[in-house]
Design brief:
CATH architecture of the largest domain: 2-Layer Sandwich
Family: Belongs to the ATP-dependent DNA ligase family.
Oligomer: single chain
InterPro entries: ATP-dep_DNA_ligase, DNA_ligae_ATP-dep_bac/arc, DNA_ligase_ATP-dep, DNA_ligase_ATP-dep_C, DNA_ligase_ATP-dep_cent, DNA_ligase_ATP-dep_CS, DNA_ligase_ATP-dep_N, DNA_ligase_N_sf
Protein name: Probable DNA ligase
GO molecular function: ATP binding; DNA binding; DNA ligase (ATP) activity; metal ion binding
Enzyme class: ligase
Largest sheet: 7 strands, antiparallel
Number of strands: 19
Shape: globular
CATH topology of the largest domain: D-amino Acid Aminotransferase, Chain A, domain 1
Radius of gyration: 24 Å
Length: about 500
């Protein structure tokens, strides 16, 4: 398959808001792909190359000064080979080798192809080709029931391999994909509710459990062999030896556990999320000890449990993990659920997750059986700039640069504004159109990618919290920021301060 075919399909997907149109475009693409190319095609569409970490960053890509090809000649197979080379390059001189590989690839790609590849390699390709859409496209291209395709993907944890099986095999081949110790599965996800009481109305009798500000982990054990995987199914076993030792000591030969991990401070309170995540990126780092909490078990000593109700799984979990179990209660009492939520927040955690006790483990799905409840913070911030959108947002001013007020000039000019993050989340088509028309009237200057604004517009932003960040002058960045709406009733002088945001930092 030519790379230009993939780029063209991605452009079609990004240019429409119709889920059906996205599925049609992707199904057509997949039906034309050679079986050997399917995993590579899927990885590029998801901006998650099948090779995993490539050792490539914005600095390396932006440093290239390459004349692109005038006409398309690259195949998907040739791109995949180049990514193989990037992923396997290491040691002394590897930076130079990677630069050479990137340069050769960039010179053989057209400008449009290179734009696509750069964003795919950096994980910043936003076309709307999400996993759910791709699963439906696979089912359509292969003419198999979507439910069978979806379950195979959930249990294999590999969309590319699922697509290959679906497009080259029959329904029996898909149904043969099962739970296997040592092969991570897609994690079950939670919906949201405003209060524990509202969540209980959805779930009925439920396990009400702490929601930690930690990192999701899935742990597989076969005898003395232990594997620890992240939410995205990356293998971090060698980076978390303390968790490996804990799991090796459990009373089981074969087990698959779902849980979270974080580090604790001297008082037993949770350390900031980014400190936990720092362990995942370090080859050797044992100064910061991680503590696991397990909240589900999917397999135990030859018995698959994913189709069993949560009540059965919790009984096995209690038997196997003991004190390593996530704190929680089983109840249908709203007052009890509200109290546990207050306890979790008082202990420094995010909130609670409420799980129906009669529900199976729906790997990779976000249904109504699990419902998370955590406070949402809102702040009034000033728009400092906006980046031109890509894909479906092309031609619109989209990604917002957000600033907090600095009245004392602690981090810059007195009565100035300090950047604390970016977001395009929550922007409707109506808001995108309004921004694009409104922002030039507030423009101070611009670059090719960004229109910078005078600090005159206030926007209400919802966040899950803040974290330390050396990237911004105030040393703080927003977590999961999304737009609630513009506050035309407020002036920039009424915006929240950088000091208010910094007061939310723990430790």
């Amino acid at each position: 398959m030519m790379l230009t075919e993939l780029v063209s399909a991605a452009d079609r997907v990004g240019a429409t808001s119709s889920r059906l149109a996205k599925i049609d475009a992707l199904a057509e693409l997949l039906s034309r792909a050679d079986p050997t190319e399917i995993p590579a095609v899927m990885g590029l569409l998801l901006a998650a190359p099948r090779q995993g970490r490539l050792g490539v960053g914005w600095r390396g890509i932006s440093a290239l000064d390459i004349a692109h090809a005038d006409s398309p000649t690259l195949t998907v197979g040739e791109v995949d080979q180049a990514l193989d080379a990037l992923a396997t390059t290491s040691g002394t001189g590897s930076a130079s080798v990677r630069s050479g590989i990137l340069g050769d690839l960039a010179s053989r790609a057209t400008s449009a192809e290179w734009d696509f590849l750069a964003r795919a390699m950096l994980g910043e390709l936003r076309t709307g080709a999400l996993s759910g859409v791709l699963l439906d496209a696979i089912a359509r291209a292969a003419d198999h029931p979507a439910a069978i395709v979806r379950r195979a993907a959930m249990l294999s944890g590999d969309l590319g391999e699922t697509a290959r099986i679906a497009l080259t095999g029959d329904e029996g081949d898909l149904e043969a994909v099962g739970l296997r110790v040592g092969r991570p599965v897609l994690p079950m996800l939670a919906a949201t509710a405003a209060t524990p009481s509202a969540a209980l109305e959805v779930t009925g009798r439920a396990s009400v459990e702490y929601k930690l500000d930690g990192a999701r982990i899935q742990v597989h054990r076969h005898g003395d062999e232990v594997g620890v995987y992240t939410r995205s199914l990356a293998d971090i076993t060698h980076r978390v030896p303390e968790i490996v030792e804990i799991v090796r000591a459990l009373p089981a030969h074969d087990v698959i556990l779902d849980g979270e991990t974080l580090s604790l401070d001297e008082d037993g309170g949770p350390r900031p999320f980014q400190e936990t995540m720092s362990r995942f990126g370090a080859d050797v780092s044992r100064e910061l000890v991680l503590r696991p909490w397990f909240f589900d078990v999917l397999h135990i000593d030859g018995r698959d449990l994913i189709d069993e109700p949560l009540s059965v799984r919790l009984a096995e979990l209690e038997r196997v993990v003991g004190d390593w179990r996530m704190p929680g209660i089983v109840t249908d009492d709203a007052d009890a659920a509200e109290q546990l939520s207050r306890d979790a927040l008082a202990a420094g955690h995010e909130g609670v997750v409420i799980k129906a006790v009669d529900a199976p483990y729906a790997a990779g799905r976000r249904g109504k059986s699990w419902v998370k409840v955590k406070p949402v913070l809102t702040f009034d911030l000033v728009v400092l700039g906006a980046e031109w959108g890509s894909g479906r947002r092309r031609g619109w001013l989209s990604n917002l640069h957000l600033g907090a007020r600095d009245p004392s000039g602690e981090f810059g000019d007195a009565d100035g504004y300090v950047m604390v993050g970016k977001t395009f989340k929550g922007l409707t088509d109506e808001l995108l159109r309004w921004q694009t028309a409104e922002f030039p009237g507030h423009e101070s200057h611009r670059t090719a990618s960004t229109v910078f604004l005078r600090p005159e517009l206030v926007v209400e932003i919802a966040v899950d919290g803040v974290q330390r960040s050396p990237r911004y002058p105030g040393g703080v960045a927003l977590r999961f920021a999304r737009v609630k709406g513009y506050r035309q009733d407020k002036s920039p002088s009424e915006a929240d301060t950088i000091q208010t945001l910094r007061s939310l930092l723990r430790g």
